[in-house]
Target: Homoserine kinase
Amino acid sequence: ESFSIHVPASSANLGPGFDSVGLAINRYLTVYVEPSKTWQTRFLGTELNMLNNEDENLITKAAHFTADQYGKTLPPCRLEVQSNFPLSKGLGSSATAIVAGVEIANILLDLQLSKKTKALLASRLEKHPDNVIPAIYGGLTISYFNGDELETVHVPDVAVELIVAIPDHELYTKQARESLPNLLPFNKAVEASAISNVLVASLIKNNWKKAAAMMNRDLFHEPFRSKWVPFYDELKTTAVSLGAYGAAISGSGPSIVCFTPHQKAASITEQLSLLFPQYRFETVFPDRKGVHVE
Ligand code: HSE
Model:
C-alpha cells in the first residue's frame, strides 16, 4: 500500500524561547511512499534538487533509526519527496525530514507510536526540540529536552498571522550555533530567563504585543546572530511601523519571521516586498494539525 506523509515547517525560538519554543506553519514537506525492491529516494523540484546526490538522507536515516529502536527492519520503499518551502533558511527543514522518517517507520512497521514517543525519537535525532515538536503536534509548543528526557506543553490555537522574510543566502544551523557563547554570567542568565518567561506567558495569553516586546530583548541568541541577517534592525522597525506586532529571527536564521494581527499580514507583505527587494516575503499561517498521513 502506498501513502503520503505531510510535515509542517516551523519557526523556532521566537526570540528568547531559544531551543524551546516553536510554531508550526502552513508550509509542508511531502513524502510519497510506496513499496519497492530496493530503497530509493527521489527529491522533486528545484528547492530539493541538490539533495539528489546524497547517499544517505535524513528521512531514511530517521526511519532506520526508529526501526532499530524496536529491533525491526524496514521493508524497502521508494520515496518521492517534495517541499513547498526552502532548505537551510531557518524554517525547520531538517526537522520535517526527521519527523517524516519517524512516521514512515511508524506506519510501515505498524508501531502505533504516540505523539510523545515520536517527539522523543525525533528530538534525539535533531538534538534540539523546537522544530520537531511543532512539526509533530502543530500549533505552538514549549519544550524542555536534555538529550534524553522531554517535557512539552502544546498550545494548539494561536491567533496570529505571519510573514516570513527570506534572504538569498543559506545559513547552516551548525555554523549559526558555533557563534553562540559557551557561558552566560549568572546575572545575565537570570535576566535572559525572566525575558523568556514573560515571552511564554504572553504567548499563552495570546498577547502578541507583549511577546514581541520580549523578542526584542532576547539575550540568548539574536545578539550573536543578527550579523547574518541583512537589514535586521530596519526590517523589524519597518514591519512594526506597518502594523506588525514585532519580529524575530526564524530558528537559527537567516530568515526573519514577523507576527501580525488577523488579516494584516497580506498587506504588510506587499509593502515590505517593495521596500526590501533583497528579500522574498511570504504570508503564512499557523499549522494546527502537525504531521499527518493520507
Ligand atoms: N533552536 C535552534 C537554534 C533552532 O536556534 O539553533 C534551529 O532551527
